[in-house]
Amino acid sequence: MKDVKPNRDFTMAEVAEGVYVWLAPNGSWGMSNAGLVLSQNESMIVDTMFDLDLTRSMLGAMAAIEPRTKESVDVLINTHANGDHCHGNELVPTKRVIASEETATEMHELPPAALHAMVERFKGDSSALGQYIQWAFGDFDFSNISIRLPTETFTKEMSISIGDLEIELIEVGPAHTRGDVIAYIPSRNVVFTGDILFNLETPIMWSGPVDNWIAACDRIALFDAVTIPGHGPITGRKGALEMRDYWILLRDQTRARFEEGMSVFDAARDIDLGSYDGWGGSERVFLNVNSLYREFGSQSVVEDVMEIFAEMGATFIRKNGLPADQGD
Ligand SMILES: [Zn+2]
């Protein structure tokens, strides 16, 4: 699958009675999926978008389905703290924003202003790093975003009702981030996984441990439900098992190279991803191997994330050509 440039052609799909998905056109950087759940005059939104414009389009599409959401939404859930799932919180007309306790803490850590400064810094920079950063983040507007924090937090599990639907919020992190939550609606057989699942798109492990992520995938697979990944097309049990197997493969291949004393970057270059090499964003293997090395207690973890992005940029260009030449 060829990686494509971010674009704004999101679509709305009804996946079960009263359960809608705001589906990104691809699963690339910042191209996240969100959800709307409606029952008996009550509503819930799962996640917001990476910038305010994208969130406005999402809310507009939701209001076209249920006009009341323009005035009031009963609950907003944030599956985790990454900006592509919570930067638009301030635009949702709700009193209740729910996330895990860890997510609420982590939301302070990478302010939108820092992302804005990063994009500005690399404007016109023709290095592999500069081109990659522009390609991944340059189409979003991170200026003037104020993070709206959760009003309610929980650990482990929380159950809420929306109309006559029971929603189970289950904390499965730390894995992708420190506080990942999935939202399961048993009576509709739907699960929103946030970034615990990427479908046909390479995941990123910012936090770990990897075995938590593997266990979370097994748990999602057991639901055997319509499964809404954080990035990529709607899936089911198969998508959860494929994500699990990516992590098993990467964990075991990385462990072997760590024990041989290879550097993070040499290990990442050497690993054979098999069929996952065809997934979008396969260059994220550099970030993931680095996170695994940290977990294994390596002394040679790369601390500067920009060094890792430079490797990813070079690898992306080698594989796909220059980002500037990528079509929409
Ligand atoms: Zn995401």
SSE order and pairing:
Blueprint: E1 11-16, E2 19-23, E3 34-39, E4 42-46, H1 52-65, E5 75-77, E6 97-100, H2 101-106, H3 112-121, H4 128-137, E7 152-154, E8 157-162, E9 165-171, E10 181-185, E11 190-192, H5 210-223, E12 226-228, H6 237-259, H7 264-270, H8 285-295, H9 305-320
Parallel strand pairs: 4-5, 5-6, 6-7, 11-12
Antiparallel strand pairs: 1-2, 2-3, 3-4, 8-9, 9-10, 10-11
Zinc ion binds next to loops.
In short:
This protein has helices at 52-65, 101-106, 112-121, 128-137, 210-223, 237-259, 264-270, 285-295, 305-320; strands at residues 11-16, 19-23, 34-39, 42-46, 75-77, 97-100, 152-154, 157-162, 165-171, 181-185, 190-192, 226-228.
Describe this protein's structure.
The protein is an alpha/beta fold and 328 residues long. The protein has a single domain (11-325), classed as Ribonuclease Z/Hydroxyacylglutathione hydrolase-like (Metallo-beta-lactamase, Chain A), CATH 3.60.15.10. The protein has helices spanning 52-65, 101-106, 112-121, 128-137, 210-223, 237-259, 264-270, 285-295, 305-320, and strands at 11-16, 19-23, 34-39, 42-46, 75-77, 97-100, 152-154, 157-162, 165-171, 181-185, 190-192, 226-228. It has a seven-stranded mixed sheet. A hairpin with a 2-residue loop joins strand 1 and strand 2 (19-23). The longest helix is centred in the last third of the chain and has 23 residues, at 237-259. The chain is globular, with a radius of gyration of 19 Å. The mean pLDDT is 95. It binds zinc ion. Zinc ion (ZN) binds next to loops.
